[in-house]
Amino acid sequence: AVKGEKVGKIFNCSAKGTLSYANSTMKVSNKLDLMNVGGIVGGVYGANVSLSKSYVNISVDAAGPNAEYNEYFPCVGGVIGYACEANGAPVVAENTNYGSVAWKDASGSYIVRPYIGGVAGYVVAGEFADNVNNGDLVVEKSMYDLNWGGVLGSSKVSVARCTNKGTLTIAQPITTANIGGVLGRLESGASSGVKTSITECDNYGILLFDEGFYINISCNIGGVVSNVETGTESVKLCDNYGEIIYRGDCKYDSSLSGSRNASMRLGGVVAICNAELLSECHNMEGANIEVAGGV
């Protein structure tokens, strides 16, 4: 990585090599609940990140927290882990990731509320546009409330003209998840008074849910974007060219408290769309959806 955390500007930077992060257990006491990992920068607070390239292969090997359902949200991205507003709104634009992003297996319970993306993990303010991911993403760890996208895990800002060309592979159980070829979840941004949208975004990568993957509660899978929340403006001009291959299962995990029925929502472009407008989006010829598991 070029920088751990940054306020200001990151412009035309590049990084190569391997970035490995490992710890025994994630705990609030050592502030790993705010863990930000990126090939160029871990977290930015009002800083712009633009025209930068990461060739870094990222590997996170971390066990789950002691208490499964607390707010942890580690953020991992090929270029940047987390972006939020400080003295200004960050602009994350025209960045490219070529490295792999992998969350490896480790002992312990579920990882709680992770945000993982080929370019960025979680963007909560500013702009996000013209970013490309070419690297493969792999999850080899059980997850709770996973937000995972080929380009961006989750966003509270509009996403425009972004492309994923990497394969997303998972063969571990998840409890709840939003998984998309470009974007995992598009949040409403209602608190800022600005309605969010996703526009002109394309996915060319394969989404592979291999044997060993199963859903404990619910999973939303979209070729471009998984979950578009209520209060968002639009999903426009987005196309999926990548196959979705599901060899996993849906089943109840008795180790989790409460009564639950596992469910899956799957769409060639979007799994759940609560936007005001869905327009000119296509699941292209050859972008086959194969469901061969115990669903």
Task: Describe, in plain words, how this protein is organized in 3D.
The chain starts with a strand and ends with a strand. It is built from no helices and 40 strands. It has 295 residues and is mainly beta. It is globular. It has strands spanning 3-6, 9-11, 14-23, 36-38, 41-45, 48-50, 53-62, 75-77, 80-84, 91-93, 96-97, 101-104, 111-112, 115-117, 120-123, 127-129, 132-133, 137-139, 143-144, 146-149, 152-155, 159-160, 163-164, 168-170, 174-180, 183-186, 197-199, 202-203, 207-209, 214-222, 225-228, 234-236, 239-240, 244-246, 249-250, 263-267, 270-273, 277-279, 282-283, 289-291. Strands 3, 7, 11, 12, 17, 18, 23, 24, 28, 29, 33, 34, 39 and 40 form a 14-stranded parallel β-sheet that branches.
Layout of strands and helices, then pairs:
Blueprint lengths: L2 E4 L2 E3 L2 E10 L12 E3 L2 E5 L2 E3 L2 E10 L12 E3 L2 E5 L6 E3 L2 E2 L3 E4 L6 E2 L2 E3 L2 E4 L3 E3 L2 E2 L3 E3 L3 E2 L1 E4 L2 E4 L3 E2 L2 E2 L3 E3 L3 E7 L2 E4 L10 E3 L2 E2 L3 E3 L4 E9 L2 E4 L5 E3 L2 E2 L3 E3 L2 E2 L12 E5 L2 E4 L3 E3 L2 E2 L5 E3 L4
Please count the helical segments.
Answer: 0
- Outline the biggest β-sheet: 14 strands, parallel
State the assembly state of the protein chains: single chain
The residue-averaged pLDDT reads 86
Radius of gyration: 17 Å
* Dominant shape: globular
